[in-house]
């Protein structure tokens, strides 16, 4: 127990995982740059990657938060689509026939979108924290429900033709850096601060490490879990707004494969699915790896289905690797204690 | 069993829900109460029920499997592709069904390796394998729609047990599949309640550690469960292909939610250790009823998914409330699930 906490404080384990991941990222980069010099290793490819990474990175960060407590939030993609749809609906109805919309209404639309995210997160919170429903099942149900409501309201069609100013957020640059990328960095810093520097963050890790111990120490484990799903909903809605702004459309079935991708990223990023361990940096690095694999596969003209198989393969491989390494570590420490 | 207990049972609630819903739909549109419609509901439930039986076994054991639609369509589609490639076109159904079951079992064995051998959390493992299966099928086996399926499968789609022509209205056809599916359902029920394997599935759901101390091999039981589910999914997949009279590799995506919803509504506890075949049959019927007849209620078909989500949400909320009531009665403030 003592050892575990010293690890927490010094962040030794964190550093090792991050170092491994950085090496892995670099290797992926070198590999694809080598095999596809003329398509992958071009500035336009990097720019387009910088526009694609943020949305999935933010969704993965949202997923990481629930996984840190030992739960899972499967409804993130549904929430992000619902938020994007509400915001887009407000904008397009307000805009009517005209081409432009005042900034005030764009802000109102975005705020409404995030409120949708918060409400959806609150539903998850009630189910998981208050009613004690298993997170997998609770969020599976809300995922179906939110997605279903979105399909029902829109008849399954997408809302497109969003105002120019709104699209500028998703497609513009901020001091030369793509705006979504800047937003992602800001969100990552905010969540990193929340997780590492606040009481709530510490409690999140404690609940994830040992829920029962957290319960007995009367630190309000339910409240912690409620907050986590609420924040997860908020982050998902932000990702949805960014997606809408980049693609200039919102649709109820956008990114149906994103949930697998987000889980792959989170697990590759070193987050323990049983809770208690994970870093924002790891998640961001893992997103970069997966995006490079995706772009690289595109450049090599592999089919998108091959990428799907690769995602599944990476997920299983990383999980097996974690188990094998964990076993070896335990065996080593047992052998060590036997010797002494 | 006294009456009060009987009334409180999940199955009773489901029967009441099905009757009430039928009455409401029937009052709104009298064409609901025709034999043709009843047989249609049956026909759309066969494949769902076979999938659901597999999912039931997994859920009782405390796990979750979301790879079964991928396994099912992989097995069904690959069987058809193999038969075309080698120009096997026998008159009877034995070959395609055997092929599909074998393929399904092999895919299930891959799940078994990930889950039983390496101890990967079931949701993550099956999410990963489902990506792998789908990706491999679409990349290497085929991604095109096959409409000239083997003659035996094609003929089977219209093999009716009995045809009843009412005085007016459409011809009511009861598909012959009702007999094998009924036998299969009874077999699974016997397997779960009367065999050592079935009881160890329940024991596993009740508690992993307790099962181990009973002297039951947890790994072997898990391996058997996922292989069995694979086989059942393969069977369901080939029957789906037969009933649809076409093999479309993109089919069945997203159907996992309906089936998990049906099993959970049927009273199976996602925490494991509880669930009945009868409840699952009722759950499948309820979902089919809602999905097929929403339009008769005057609700647009695009609300199907929301209806399933809402039902699932109600189901798990009721389950959770019952659970907390029980916990209160036991006067135990903390639950044991957290310690797993």
Helix content of chain A: over 70%
Quaternary state, please? Answer: heterodimer
Q: How many helices of chain B does DSSP assign? A: 14
Average residue-wise pLDDT of chain A: 85
Biggest β-sheet strands, sense, barrel of chain A: 2 strands, antiparallel
- CATH topology heading of chain A: ABC transporter involved in vitamin B12 uptake, BtuC
Helix amount of chain B: 55-70%
- For the record, what CATH class of chain A applies? Mainly Alpha
Helices of chain A, by number, come to 14
Q: What is the helix/strand order of chain A?
A: HHHHHHEHEEHHHHEHHH
What is the typical, i.e. mean, pLDDT of chain B? 86
How many domain regions of chain A? 1
- For the secondary structure, the number of strands of chain B is 2
Name the shape of chain A in a single word: globular
Describe the structure.
The complex is a heterodimer of chains A (340) and B (340). Chain A has helices at residues 2-10, 12-35, 43-68, 76-95, 103-130, 135-154, 164-171, 179-197, 199-209, 211-216, 221-247, 258-268, 280-299, 304-339; strands at 159-160, 173-174, 177-178, 249-250. Chain A is mainly alpha-helical and 340 residues long. In chain A, the strands form two sheets. A two-stranded antiparallel ribbon of chain A has the order 1-4. Chain A has a two-stranded antiparallel sheet with strand order 2-3. The radius of gyration of chain A is 21 Å and the shape is globular. Mean pLDDT of chain A is 85; it is low at 1-12. In chain B, helix 4 packs parallel to helix 6. Chain B is globular, with a radius of gyration of 21 Å. Chain B contains 14 helices and two strands; from the N terminus they run αααααααββααααααα. Chain B has a domain at 34-252. The chains are: A mainly alpha (340), B mainly alpha (340).
């Amino acid at each position: 127990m003592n050892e575990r906490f010293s690890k927490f404080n010094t962040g030794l384990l964190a550093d090792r995982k991050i170092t491994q991941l950085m090496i892995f990222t670099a290797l992926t980069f070198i590999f694809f740059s080598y095999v596809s010099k003329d398509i992958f290793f071009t500035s336009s490819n990097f720019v387009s990657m910088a526009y694609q990474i943020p949305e999935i990175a933010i969704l993965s960060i949202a997923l990481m938060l629930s996984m840190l407590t030992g739960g899972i939030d499967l409804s993130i993609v549904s929430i992000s689509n619902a938020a994007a749809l509400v915001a887009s609906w407000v904008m397009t109805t307000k805009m009517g026939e005209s081409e432009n919309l005042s900034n005030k209404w764009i802000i109102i639309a975005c705020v409404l979108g995030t409120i949708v995210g918060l409400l959806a997160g609150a539903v998850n919170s009630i189910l998981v924290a208050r009613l004690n429903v298993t997170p997998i099942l609770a969020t599976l149900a809300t995922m179906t429900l939110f997605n279903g409501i979105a399909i029902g309201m829109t008849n399954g069609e997408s809302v497109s033709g969003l105002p120019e100013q709104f699209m500028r957020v998703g497609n513009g640059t901020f001091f030369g850096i793509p705006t979504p990328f800047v937003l992602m960095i800001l969100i990552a810093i905010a969540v990193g601060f929340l997780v590492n520097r606040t009481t709530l963050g510490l409690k999140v890790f404690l609940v994830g490490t040992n829920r029962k111990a957290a319960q007995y120490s009367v630190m309000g484990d339910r409240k912690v879990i409620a907050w986590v799903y609420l924040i997860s909903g908020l982050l998902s809605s932000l990702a949805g707004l960014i997606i809408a702004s980049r693609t200039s459309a919102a649709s109820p079935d956008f990114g149906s494969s994103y949930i697998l991708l987000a889980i792959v990223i989170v697990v590759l990023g070193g987050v323990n699915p049983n809770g208690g361990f994970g870093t924002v940096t790891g998640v961001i690095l893992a997103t970069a790896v997966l995006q490079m694999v995706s772009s690289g596969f595109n450049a090599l003209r592999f089919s998108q289905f091959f990428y799907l198989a690769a995602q599944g393969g990476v997920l299983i491989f990383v999980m097996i690797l974690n188990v094998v390494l964990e076993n070896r570590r335990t065996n080593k420490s047992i052998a060590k204690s036997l010797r002494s | 069993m006294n009456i009060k207990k009987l009334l409180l049972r999940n199955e009773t609630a489901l029967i009441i829900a099905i009757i009430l819903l039928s009455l409401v739909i029937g009052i709104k549109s009298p064409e609901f109460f025709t034999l043709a419609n009843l047989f249609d509901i049956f026909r759309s439930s066969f494949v769902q029920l076979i999938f659901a039986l597999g999912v039931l076994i997994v859920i009782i054991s405390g796990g979750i499997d979301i790879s079964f639609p991928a396994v099912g369509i992989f097995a069904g589609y690959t069987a058809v592709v193999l038969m075309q490639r080698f120009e096997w076109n026998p008159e009877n159904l034995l070959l395609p069904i055997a092929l599909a079951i074998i393929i399904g079992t092999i895919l299930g064995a891959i799940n078994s390796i990930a889950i039983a051998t390496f101890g990967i959390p079931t949701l993550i493992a099956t999410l990963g394998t489902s990506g792998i299966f789908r990706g491999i099928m679409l990349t290497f086996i085929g991604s095109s729609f096959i409409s000239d399926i083997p003659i035996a499968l094609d003929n089977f789609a219209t093999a009716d047990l009995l045809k009843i022509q009412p005085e007016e209205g459409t011809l009511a056809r009861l598909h012959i599949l009702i007999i094998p599916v009924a036998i299969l359902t009874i077999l699974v029920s016997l397997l779960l309640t009367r065999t050592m394997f079935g009881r160890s599935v329940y024991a596993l759901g009740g508690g992993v550690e307790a099962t181990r101390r009973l002297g039951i091999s947890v790994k072997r039981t898990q391996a058997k469960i996922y292989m069995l589910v694979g086989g059942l999914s393969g069977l369901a997949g080939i029957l789906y292909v037969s009933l649809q009279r076409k093999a479309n590799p993109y089919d069945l995506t997203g159907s996992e939610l309906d089936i998990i919803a049906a099993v959970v509504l049927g009273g199976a506890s996602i925490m494991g250790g509880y669930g009945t075949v009868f409840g699952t049959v009722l759950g499948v019927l309820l979902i089919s009823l809602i999905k097929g007849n929403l339009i008769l209620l005057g609700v647009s078909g695009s609300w199907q998914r929301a209806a399933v989500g809402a039902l699932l949400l109600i189901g798990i909320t009721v389950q959770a409330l019952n659970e907390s009531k029980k916990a209160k009665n036991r006067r135990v403030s903390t639950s044991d699930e957290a310690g797993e």
